[in-house]
Write a structure and sequence with these properties.
The protein has 15 helices and 13 strands. It is an alpha/beta fold. The protein binds guanosine-5'-diphosphate, 2-acetamido-2-deoxy-beta-D-glucopyranose (2 copies) and magnesium ion. Magnesium ion (MG) binds next to helix 2.
Length: 385
């Protein structure tokens, strides 16, 4: 009997390989928290998680919100990023192909459990489709859940506590081919160990071409500094919490995961005009002093106030032009920032964090507004920008 079971198992294993299914199963999730920067942090964590379990990661759509619309919009993963570089690192498949080619066999409609740490909302359920973007996300793929599975106290840190083994023991792929999570199986901000996975995220040709043509056709020849000004009303409100939450959002990228490099300050979160102008001038001077490729322009990305006029007049005497992208397009903004000769970002913003990680893997220089703080900085640290 044992050997027959074993035999059947291997037959099934062969069969699923032959059909192109992953016998080790799939990880599926809704990127249900925050906008692009948050979702990107979560994506890297989910990729590390799927890799730890050696399950195929289903690449979810990016969830976007349009002003005044009550339901989120789902943008296929490969609109913004190439799939093939990710495949070099780990098994992945887009949500669209998963639903079309794999779900009918591996994830039958009558057995679709949603996974959450513990009950969420009313009753003993994940309520995986309650609210926006939860409902709209799964509706996009015509998914209804038949039940819930609470996986607590397991968690996503694949680098400690034997966690991969615990997941495999509790949810063997044979019995649980698909783990479909209510939210990302990942922490925010991204775990230090997963940051390097950024190198497998390569912009799609669509984004890449727009960024490239803006740089070559619009920006003057010569070096350019890319800056991120996160200053919309939601951000102004969030920054008011900095005194009580000195590791708010993405602040760990500057102050460390245990605040070992200090505390986030209001000026890091929402730098004043004086801070921005002073630091930008100093950054440009330093680059020009170090390199023959003189800074000819500054590219400003912002969710709200690009400060174009203020920066133009501040930089006029240095003969530096100031530009922004003519359309509101966060991904093209990110791609341009990623290609600048130097980037100045916001410590607290996960949107800035995306650029910083991309530049780190390429070996490009970055710095942050008001960090390190003048007081805690070793003398001269600012001059090494
Ligand atoms: N086009 C554009 N949009 C931005 C910029 N900064 C922020 N946003 C928008 O505001 C959102 C901020 O949310 P998120 O990406 O989670 O980053 P965070 O809130 O700064 O941590 C982004 O996803 C964009 O939609 C920017 O420089 N350019
Ligand atoms: C992961 O699974 C694939 C089959 O899907 C296998 O080829 C590969 O060797 C496994 N990797 C590890 C690290 O176990
Ligand atoms: C330019 O760089 C040199 C070292 O490379 C340094 O000694 C000098 O102080 C710098 N000048 C300015 C104006 O920053
Ligand atoms: Mg946010």
């Amino acid at each position: 009997m044992v050997s027959l079971n074993k035999y059947l198992f291997f037959v099934l294993l062969q069969l699923s390989f032959a059909l192109g299914f992953d016998p080790l199963g799939y990880v599926l999730y809704c990127p249900c928290m925050g906008r692009f920067g948050n979702q990107a942090d979560h994506f890297l964590g989910a990729l590390g998680f799927a890799r730890g379990l050696n399950r195929t990661l289903v690449l979810p759509a990016w969830v976007e919100y349009r002003y005044g619309e009550p339901r989120s919009i789902q943008v296929p993963f490969d609109t913004y990023f190439k799939v093939e570089p990710l495949q070099k690192f780990h098994k992945v498949v887009t949500m669209e192909s998963f639903m079309k080619d794999i779900a009918p066999y591996e994830w039958p409609r009558n057995d679709r459990k949603s996974f959450c740490y513990m009950a969420r909302g009313s009753g003993e359920s994940c309520n995986a489709k309650d609210g926006n973007p939860f409902g709209p996300f799964w509706d996009t793929y015509d998914v209804e859940f038949t039940g819930s599975e609470f996986y607590g106290p397991l968690h996503y840190d694949m680098y400690h506590h034997d966690m991969a083994k615990q997941w495999k023991d509790r949810y063997p792929a044979k019995m649980w081919p698909v783990l479909a999570f209510t939210g990302a199986p990942a922490s925010f901000p991204v775990q230090e160990e997963n940051k390097h996975l950024q190198k497998y995220l390569r912009w799609s040709d669509l984004v890449e071409d727009e960024a490239h043509s803006f740089i070559t056709n619009v920006l003057p020849r010569g070096a350019f500094v890319g800056i991120h000004l996160r200053n919309g009303i939601d951000w102004v409100r969030a920054c008011q919490h900095i005194p009580e939450s000195p590791s708010l959002f993405a602040a760990a990228q500057c102050v460390g995961y245990r605040n070992e490099k200090g505390k986030a300050t209001s000026d890091m979160c929402l730098p004043t005009k004086e801070t921005i102008v002073r630091q930008l001038k100093r950054t440009i001077k330093n680059i020009n002093n170090k390199s023959d490729n003189e800074v000819r322009s500054v590219f400003v990305a912002s969710d709200s106030n690009h400060m174009i006029d203020e920066l133009r007049s501040a930089l006029k005497r240095m003969n530096v032009q100031v530009y922004k992208y003519p359309k509101s397009n966060p991904h093209v903004d990110l791609a341009i920032l990623g290609k600048s000769n130097h980037f100045v970002g916001n410590c607290v913003s996960s949107f800035s964090a995306f650029v910083k990680r991309e530049r780190d893997v390429k070996g490009f220089a970055s710095s942050f507004w008001a960090f390190p703080t003048q007081k805690s900085a070793k003398s001269g640290a600012h001059d090494e920008l």
